[in-house]
From TrEMBL:
It comes from Aliicoccus persicus. InterPro entries: QueT. Coiled coil: none annotated. Pfam families: QueT (PF06177). This is Uncharacterized membrane protein. Keywords: Membrane, Transmembrane, Transmembrane helix. The chain crosses the membrane at residues 7-32, 52-83, 90-111, 117-139.
Length: 149
């Protein structure tokens, strides 16, 4: 990875962290994490995986669940981006990513905070599906520029 990609990934991570940390409803069961729009970047260009995963890791350190949220969040991204290597359709990847978020964050919130799984699952899946769909629409409209980088 040359220095250009290191800079791109650093900027992506910083934007993800900033968008998450300033968002008052970006964590727990009822959340709208606007920064998840950035999570679709690796579906267009795999060179952005490190930036998104680093951003998720740093941002999740600021949640009330700390290191557990870091492990779960980065793990979800790693699984979703591995699957996306085989599934080339952006919209299917958006759905897979959203479902993974709903399942694993729902389980984490059940285990740690005792929150009802199904409420967490549905609220997180739906909010993630909305924000990642918006991100996919935005990045699809400029897709050739993202893949050419």
């Amino acid at each position: 990875m040359n220095s250009k990609y290191v800079v791109y990934n650093a900027v992506i991570a910083a934007i993800y962290v900033a968008m998450t940390v300033i968002n008052p409803i970006g964590t727990m069961a009822i959340q709208i994490r606007v920064s998840e729009m950035i999570s679709v970047l690796p579906f267009f260009n795999r060179k952005f995986i490190p930036g998104v995963l680093i951003g998720v890791g740093i941002a999740n350190m600021f949640s009330g669940l700390g290191i557990l949220d870091v492990i779960v969040g980065v793990g979800i991204g790693a699984v979703a981006y591995t699957i996306s290597y085989f599934v080339k359709n952006v919209w299917i990847n958006v759905i897979i990513f959203s479902l993974l978020c709903g399942v694993f964050v729902g389980w984490m919130l059940l285990a740690v905070a005792g929150l009802p799984f199904w409420i967490s699952f549905f609220s997180i899946t739906i909010s993630t599906l909305i924000t990642t769909s918006i991100g996919a629409l935005i990045f699809k409209s400029i897709g050739k520029r993202i893949t050419a980088i």
